[in-house]
């Protein structure tokens, strides 16, 4: 084991141990005489005066409009701090051009809390093609431009200008996904950890409740913010490691940070949880009860786990910013240190200082989740917005979040990096109470619950069946490439929840609008039957994302076999219920690992099934996602990075190729036909140009020929054929006549010469009357591919 030398010897240095975890609501309240919950957290001095406040203890600065609802981060954090006895004020969507708007509530007694909002500000403001958006679902009236680029950095700097001595704590998804050096898609370079650019005092990553409450009480007790360095779920700037911690040097790709007695997690891929654990190495079968040998009772000090008081030293910012293999290596290590049970701290040098990332906070218990969701939310926007509509609120005002986290581990998704893999579920009683609150409090409620779900609809109360294996697991996904043997797949608690929810008085319908993990659903046909027959409003969205093995393997998504099995169940149970219902499959264009041929095969699969995607989104490289690392480095960081056999991944880059992939996915749109034809000619797949049912796009029309740009007053020669338009027309006429005979032969020869995974997929056209399939809207939750 290669060890980095600590600045002080262990004999002379005090050991900085991790702060102990305690119940979220076990702290004594900050104010002995509690002010009680405010109707709405105040946004103005006038509201503070009505509450009898002379000042705020904590002021939250947020990029979203204030909606007092548990689906909005600022409401959850604000109400939680309020429950701890703090007076909390909100500054929402401030004018960032000066410090004035950041002083509207006066100076906070303890600290500023800064977040860009529910959504990353750059994803909120720009499309996947880097075009400026003119709307914002988190703003009244859906008006764009109410928050700056890189809002966390801008807001923090203004807070420091307003009150230099007041600590600033940053959090939310924008800060969470930028906690170390990261590739920035919009500037196309690697940027420093956001805490350096923002000049914040502490960064909180992931769900903030537990670390934020601990930090707040420490600051309230008089501890300087500069001394709060050891709280789980936080990152801070340091000159050196915490005293007494041992370091593991992983600053080069041949230094992978092995810690005995755990097998090196970076050399093993796609193996079961127990393969990563110290128990497996010792030959212990966790599935059988241990044989206990009677021995005299001896009192011993608790044995330190090999990951405790240990940090991993990553390659420095100056290295990863110019060296792609090192960047991929650093990303791989970071994603292996996400399990709170066995994660090590991470340290990365930026110049003469380091970012120190403490291990993740432990997930909330069911009792804690119930208390968080049971806080006194008004469930409506703040009255200051009047009758202006806030689209994000309109979409979720009658939805219920039943859990957090996702163990799917999809490489393009940011949920794992932010919420973690461990599922945190609410109790059935808590969920029923929220449905009743919606029924009784939400204006205009029609009796329909729009969604009963979460990051994934069917992971409620699913966890690892072996707690010891779960504690030491470093597997990035519990369901890829296969479902882990330790994973519980019994979805009967979700079925029971659905039944009780729809039987509540005043509830007419309970829909499930969250995405269903169909490879997990097929493990429990009873769940699929309950879902299909009672909780689908005509359409159910699922996300195969692609049909081809190349991109699917880089997405960490299952093959189409699971989709076919789920569709068979869906159709059968719909027919049994006498309902005409449809699956809405979502797909990603331009994902790393995708070739032009992969996209053509996907389009042929869609056409054979009469799917016409309306809205299509190109892959969006969000910071810190595994797929973003592959996009930047063109290396498969899902596997071990080394100098000998690192896999090179094809990555669609550049406006032209990304536009092509998006056009192929919308093969039915005439606007994309010219660029698709060029690609088919280049790939020697001209047989797919024609009017036959097996063709992808029709031949060029005379109008298209006339509209094609001319050069020097003469018909333009095409890039790939060398023929002028007249000659092309003659050739197409001959081709069209022979198309029916030659097409089948050419396709058969092509399919025979390629691997099965690349052969165009054939299928039967769907029944008449099948609706146009709506594609994914622009990303709203940090999901990179959505």
TrEMBL record:
Spans annotated as Disordered: 694-786
Entry keywords, A to Z: 4Fe-4S, Iron, Iron-sulfur, Metal-binding, S-adenosyl-L-methionine
Cofactor note: Binds 1 [4Fe-4S] cluster. The cluster is coordinated with 3 cysteines and an exchangeable S-adenosyl-L-methionine.
Binding site for [4Fe-4S] cluster: 406, 410, 413
Low complexity bias locations: 738-752
Entries under SMART domains matching the protein: Elp3
Pfam families: DUF3362, Radical_SAM, Radical_SAM_N
Stored SUPFAM superfamilies: Radical SAM enzymes (SSF102114)
HAMAP family: UPF0313
Family: Belongs to the UPF0313 family.
NCBIfam families registered for this protein in UniProt: SAM_YgiQ
Record-given protein name: Radical SAM core domain-containing protein
Species per Swiss-Prot/TrEMBL record: Alishewanella aestuarii B11
Upper lineage: Bacteria, Pseudomonadati, Pseudomonadota, Gammaproteobacteria, Alteromonadales
